[in-house]
Amino acid sequence: TTVAQGINNWDWNIAGLNTSTLQIHTYTFPEDTGHYLITLTIIDANGCTNTITHTAIVTGEFGIFVPNSFTPDGDGLNDNFFPSGFGIGNEEFSFFIFDRWGELIYETHTKFAPWDGKFKGKSVPNDVYVWKLKFKDINGKEHSKVGNVNVVR
Question: Disulfide engineering: 62 pairs with which of 76, 87, 117, 142, CB 3.0-4.6 Å?
Answer without folding.
Answer: 87
